[in-house]
Every structure is written in C-alpha cells, then in structure tokens.
Design brief:
There is one protein chain. The protein has 372 residues and is α/β, with parallel strands linked by helices. The chain folds into two domains: 90 residues, Winged helix-like DNA-binding domain superfamily/Winged helix DNA-binding domain (Arc Repressor Mutant, subunit A), CATH 1.10.10.10; 236 residues, 3-Layer(aba) Sandwich (D-Maltodextrin-Binding Protein, domain 2). Helices cover 38% and strands 18% of the residues. It has 13 helices and eleven strands. The strands form two sheets. Strands 3, 4, 5, 6, 7, 8, 9, 10 and 11 form a nine-stranded mixed beta sheet that branches. Helix 1 packs across helix 2, helix 1 packs across helix 4 and helix 2 crosses helix 3. The protein is elongated and about 100 Å long. It starts with 22 loop residues before the first helix and ends in an 18-residue tail after the last helix. The C terminus is likely disordered.
Length: 372
C-alpha cells in the first residue's frame, strides 16, 4: 500500500493543466490512447529514452509490469497498469471539485499576503471576551488581521521578549504596591526602555457563584468552608496571580480552600464549571458570570494592557490598532460586556506610571561654586 502526498506550487500565470497531475499517469494515459511508446513520447514532448527509462523505474518501484510488449502489435497496458490508471482517474473525478474549492480558498488567502494595505499582527494574550470582537473589528475596518493565541499573562510577555509575537496581552489588579506578588512577578518580565504599554480595557474580577447564590458566599473567607468546592485558573495566568495575591492580603492559606489546585484555562470554562455544578464558586471576570447566567461578587478592578517592544510602537499596524481602540464604534461594540470599561483605551502608558515600583534615580547636579 502506497501513501499519497499532495503538494502545490505558485505560478504568475493561469495554470491550464488539470490539477493533481502525476508523470506516471500521464505516461500510462498517453500509451493507452496511442498504442505506442514512441508516439506517447512525442505527445508528451519527451524523448523515447526518457519515457522508456521512467516506465522501467516505476515497474521496479511498484513491483509489477505496466506495459505489455508483443512484436508487431501495439503497446498496451498490463492488467495492473489498466487498473492503476482507472483507479487514478476515478479518484480524481471524485476529489477534483473539492480540490478546486480548496485552491480557490488558498488563492484568496494568499492574495492577502500580496496586498500592501493589509497587515498581520501576531499576538499572544491572556484570555479575554473582548479580544475575539476586536479581531473581527480590526479585519473589517482596517484589514488588520489579529493572529491571536491565548496563553497565560506571564507566558505572553515572555513570548514577546523572545520575538514570537508583535503584541502581548496581560492584566494586573489595581493593587500594585511594592512587595506584592504582582511586583515580584512582572518586574522580572517588563523592562523600562524596552517595553511599552497600551491601555485596552478595565475589568471587574470577583467570585463567580451559582444563580441566586444558594451557598450564601459573601467574601474570600467563605472559601475556607469545607463544603464549598472552588475552581481556579491555571498557574501562570494573571487571574491565578490575582487570587493568590488577594488571599495573601487576607492571610488565607491556599491549602485551606477545597479545590484550589483545580484549574481551568479560561474565564468561560470557570463559569461553565460553576454552572454545571462541578464547583460551587470560582474566580473570574464579571462578563463570564453574566454570560452563563451566574451570580457575581466583585472583589477587584484590573487593567488589561497590550504590550509591545519600544521599536514596534510606531509600526503602521500598531498605530492603526491604537486608533481603532480610541474609536466610538469599538467602545459601542463591547458596551454589552458587564464589568468592562474602555477609559483611555488606545493610550500609551509608561511603565513608571502603570507600575509604581519602577523608580529612576536622577543624577545629582554638581554644586555651583560661587565666584570669588
């Protein structure tokens, strides 16, 4: 049994030959119709020697005769050769319509690559419900194509620094004081003079509970109740960092919470776990709770930032992205997401202003010496 491998090529002019051509079957079809190796070679604009050598090579590879030779008679395909040619023609008849559709789709996509007015923005981002809407809006309004991959906040910034994306998305709580987990985590990743922040959205994070809050959950300390099942986000996510920081502030040990080590990859999957009864409470954004018809207890406000390297800030794609974020149309598009706000969206923010633990020493000016 032979395996099939299909490839494709580029051409700057229309391709008149049918697709899925193979040189062996061109030879077999020509010999079948002409009854002569010499005439088949002439039809294909090949030398007799080339055709003869190719046939022998394929007979050896396939382990069977392809051509029957009898003195004074027309050359004809062997029984195996006839079946092989028939199988190829039948298979092509079945798949060519699908292949034509595939080629048309690929040609449309590749045409985008040759259009100087379009741009691709590779982005790693922490999960957010507004990002798919932004992706669609960018494509429609500005031919900006957001190549979006969801990762944890820390992984996203690390990928940006390694050059794997043009833009990274992460979020931090408003509690950014010195000595917090936020400082310890992000100060290692974000470097003044290297990274630039762009405001995206503000969000409300809190406890996601079942509709009507049947377990009467009011605050973080309730999570210590042994009968409650908690569902968390994965390590490395910004949301996991935030709940850990909140617990540290309240002197609550993570080990005292039933289910703290369980993990879901997105806000929506946390909400789904609560809605399905797999958990009694989770930690996530208000919009995810609302989408699943769940209750929500707000705990913190956070800011979601886009970050890029300093040299990328003036690239056409990033400039256009910032312009779209400042538009009234974009703000209306996410107006229905509870807990979101778009204040200062699109504005560039210095690390020193956004993260108060960054401080820059100023050089002391030499003392002035008064003239005698």
């Amino acid at each position: 049994m032979f395996n099939i491998k299909v490839g494709y090529t580029f051409s700057d002019s229309p391709i008149n030959k049918p697709h899925l051509e193979h040189p062996l079957f061109e030879l077999l079809a020509a010999i079948h119709s002409t009854g002569s190796v010499a005439q088949a070679a002439e039809c294909l604009d090949l030398s007799y020697r080339h055709v003869w050598g190719s046939l022998k090579k394929w007979e050896e590879a396939l382990g069977s005769e392809l051509i029957l030779w009898e003195r004074g008679k027309r050359a004809r395909l062997s029984g195996f050769g006839e079946k092989l040619l028939y199988a190829e023609q039948r298979a092509k008849t079945r798949v060519l319509p699908q292949l034509e559709n595939l080629i048309s789709e690929m040609e449309r996509e590749f045409a985008f690559a040759f259009d100087p007015t379009t741009h691709v923005v590779p982005m790693y981002a922490s999960h957010d419900m507004a990002l798919p809407r932004l992706k669609e809006y960018m494509a429609q309004e500005a031919r900006l194509h957001l190549d979006l991959k969801f990762r944890g906040s820390m992984d996203c910034i690390a990928a940006l620094t390694r050059g794997e994306c043009l833009l990274a998305g992460f979020h931090v709580s408003e509690d950014r004081a010195k000595g917090t987990l936020t400082q310890k985590t992000f100060k290692k990743l974000l470097k003044p003079g290297k990274h630039k922040l762009i405001n995206f959205v503000g969000r409300q994070q809190g406890l996601i509970v079942r509709s009507g809050n049947p377990k009467n959950i009011r605050n973080l300390r309730d999570l210590k109740r042994p009968e409650l099942r908690f569902v968390n986000r994965e390590p490395g996510s910004g949301t996991r960092l935030e709940i850990e920081q909140l617990l540290a502030t309240e002197n609550i040990a993570a080990a005292s919470i039933n289910g703290f080590d369980s993990a879901e990859p997105t806000h929506l999957s946390v909400a789904a776990a609560v809605a399905s009864g797999q958990a009694d409470v989770g930690f996530g954004i208000q919009a995810a709770a609302a989408k699943s018809g769940l209750g929500f207890i707000p705990l913190i406000r956070e800011q979601y930032y886009f970050v890029c390297l300093k040299e990328s800030l003036d690239e056409a794609a990033i400039v256009k992205l910032r312009e779209l974020l400042r538009s009234k149309e974009w703000r209306l598009l996410i107006n229905d997401l509870p807990g979101y706000d778009t204040q200062l969206a699109g504005d560039v923010v210095s690390l020193r202003k956004a993260m108060p633990w960054y401080s820059f020493k100023t050089e002391k000016q030499p003392a002035m010496v008064s003239p005698e």
